[in-house]
Amino acid sequence: MSVPTPLPIPLALALLLAAEPTRAQPATCREPTERPVELGAERCGRPPEIRVGEGVATVLRFDTPLMRAEVSGPGRFRQVVDRELLILVPEEPVADESRATLTVYFADGAVPIQATLQLVIETPARAERQVELFRRARTAASFQRELLETRRVLQEVREENARLRAAQARPGGLMGLWVSGDMGRTGVAAREFLDVREHARNSLVLRSGLTFRARSILVVVGLKNPLGAKPWQATGAALVGPDGAELKVARVWAPASLNPGDEMDVLVETEPVEGAPRGPFTLTLWAEDGKRPIILGNIEFP
Q: Which chain positions lie within coiled-coil regions (predicted)?
């Protein structure tokens, strides 16, 4: 069970975020978004789920001041409670998809006096940074924030659709790289993996690695699935630098499921990158639902 520490919230935020791994800060200028959760509106009697990741600070913002919070189940959490804010940081590795129970107690004495949530352990890249929780009916401002976020996602989908339509009219190969502007006069630079750090919990074997750079960055990772293991196929990726800057991943390509004993290249391409990203970078690959992540550190680009 975790005991809350009565620190002033600015100091608490500074301490927790300073201790958080560098992957926690996005590189975009996008306004932070909060997923709204209505307490008491659970489906099939199941409490709401919050995705958390080892070393990542997740901020829960309630519409009612809290008295205390308790976490039970696998793992160990640091937590800070300050009025309506609760900050959680998982401190030790546990199996992916493990679940802990978070119980919060409200300070106003009104009913309900407490609420229960499920903390789902995910890869750090999939952890939620901010969640807004409503004990009472949601405010108009909350609906407005959700509407703005929906519009933002819709605009991204429209832009991606426009890019795909434009790409269909362009030639392929080196000609396509030149016409699209993805390759300039300096061509495409390449670099092999050197002194890459593999996470101790990686379930696949790293066989090779290359990085390429033109306007965007391409990472090619050769992986082998050990005999006796389950099939694995990459569905998502994150590239995070030493200052916490996260390069926006445009696409992840794995042609098929990687069966036990087989080898395959997994390709990760970023959006166009301005300037020279300061490394080294950490690459995290995960399968469906964030399971069996592969974490590779100390990756440099040309």
A: 140-167
